[in-house]
Structure formats: C-alpha cells, structure tokens
C-alpha cells in the first residue's frame, strides 16, 4: 500500500509539472504528457481503491 501511494504521489508530481509547463510556459508538447499522466493516475487510484477496500475488510 505504501508503494502504491508513493507511485500516486510521483505521478501527480509529473502531472503538476507538465500541466504547469503547458499553462505557464506554453510548451505544447507538455499537453500530451499531462494527459498521459492523468490516465496513469486513474489506473493507480482505481488500484488504491481496490487495495483500500480489501484492507478494510481484514
């Protein structure tokens, strides 16, 4: 679970960096990288929910 949370935090930092590059600096290539990061976050958050529910049942 701790590993998963670290992955989520790292991916969120990637998203934050890329989205700031897109908005503040106008780096167009950062847009696809930010969108890719959101897809990865979605997967990780679904996994977190699954693990969290399993842990609460113990």
TrEMBL record:
It holds the Pfam family Hc1. It comes from the Bacteria. One of its GO terms (molecular function) is structural constituent of chromatin. Belongs to the histone H1/H5 family. HCT subfamily. Might have a role analogous to that of eukaryotic histone proteins. This is Histone H1. It comes from Flavobacterium fryxellicola.
């Amino acid at each position: 679970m701790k590993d998963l949370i670290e992955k989520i935090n790292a991916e969120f930092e990637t998203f934050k960096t890329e989205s700031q590059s897109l908005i503040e600096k106008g780096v167009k290539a950062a847009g696809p990288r930010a969108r890719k990061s959101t897809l990865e976050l979605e997967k990780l958050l679904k996994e977190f929910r699954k693990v969290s529910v399993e842990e609460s049942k113990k």
